[in-house]
Amino acid sequence: MGKYLFIDKAGETCYNDSKKLWVVCVVTLQQMKYIIAIVQCGSITEAANRLYVSQPSLTNAVKSVEAETGITIFLRSAKGITLTADGSEFLSYVRQVVEQAELLEQRYLHKKPIRQLCSVSTQHYSFAVNAFVNVISALDTEEYELTLRETRTYEIIEDVRNFRSELGLLYLSDFNEKVMTKLLKENHLEFHLLFCAEPHVFISAEHPLAAKSEITLEELEPYPCLCFEQGEYNSFYFSEEILSTVPHRKTIHVSDRATLFNLLIGLNGYTICTGVLHSNLNGNQIIAVPLASREQIRVGWIQNEKSNLSAFALRYIEELNSLIRAYPQERLPSDTGS
To answer: At residue 291, what are phi and psi to the nearest 5 degrees?
Structure first.
């Protein structure tokens, strides 16, 4: 397939100087914005509601673009829509065109700065929320529409693969790295190391083991182990907690971080984690204590290899790095990534 050259009026297929085929497409900016909105929402129905247009109009717009480009952009199923391989490539060009058009409007038509748009999907990391708060607080804009999804591991991969999110935050370990790396490669996703951490446990500050400098799995055995449930993709490799194959006498699966923290306090439970916890958003009721283990948790962010990160996404990555650099370094190994 050739690359795309978007124009506002009919034209003929043409060649550039190197005789490489370009596909001349009559696709309007409005249609491009429709495609982007559908990807962000994950369904035509939700996108139609957000754009205040009828669902048939939006469906016809997509069909028109597909007919013009000669590709299938979306696959429809009972679970919603997903981008095809051609659709993913097409979207990468569309985003660039729309962003450039908006910059031109700001520069020459004196329109107000465009609304900040960005979506991030992440495992349940408090530092990911801290960084999000810090970036938003520093924004110099009157309008923005941002999404932070704390979700399951498989859904993070799906979100970034289908461009619903620009970034995804997850971890690799010796146990899951081979499977996860293969899955990321198959979905054309790139992993960028953020930092390495030694395993810790989050427990209540009033927990019977709170005063210890290090805790063993044997000492934790009488207490409930709290884990984030992974839904239908409930594989050890997708677990958010390292050492997921170790059996526990008491296990509670939860779906959100607030519930997990409440159970840590109410039941003297624990969860295995990176140990990175900032008290400015989480208070002092939860503490992190090192776990006796030789494992390492390699936390990083993923992006679609065809995506160009927005200014917000780039600032968010910078803020994540700043938070990690500012965190007490005795809690992290010396080979922290960037």
So the answer is: -100, 135
- In whole angstroms, give the CA distance from residue 250 to residue 269: 9
The conformation of residue 212, written as its DSSP 8-state character, comes to -
Phi-psi group of 80: left, alpha or beta (phi > 0 → left; psi -120 to 50 → alpha; rest → beta): left
Question: pLDDT tens across 56-107, in order?
Answer: 999 999 998 888 888 899 888 776 788 887 888 888 788 778 877 877 776 6
Digit-coded pLDDT (tens) for 276-308: 887 666 668 899 999 999 999 999 999 998 777
SS3 158: helix
Q: How far is CA 184 from CA 33, 149, 207, 286, 299, in A?
A: 27, 19, 38, 33, 14
Q: Which two tokens stand for residue 271?
A: 């969860």
Give this prediction's pTM: 0.71
Q: Tell me phi and psi for residue 136, to 5 degrees.
A: -65, -40
Long-range contacts of 141-147 (CB under 8 A, 24+ apart): 141/113, 141/115, 141/116, 142/112, 143/115, 143/116, 144/115, 144/116, 144/117, 144/312, 145/115, 145/116, 145/117, 146/116, 146/117, 146/118, 146/119, 146/312, 147/40, 147/118, 147/119, 147/120
